[in-house]
Amino acid sequence: MSVTEATPRERGPLAGRTFVLTGTLAAMTRDEATERIEALGGRVSDTVSRHTDAVVVGEAPGHKLDDARRLGVRTLAPAEFEALLAGTR
Question: N or C: which end of the chain has fewer CB within 10 A?
Answer without folding.
Answer: N
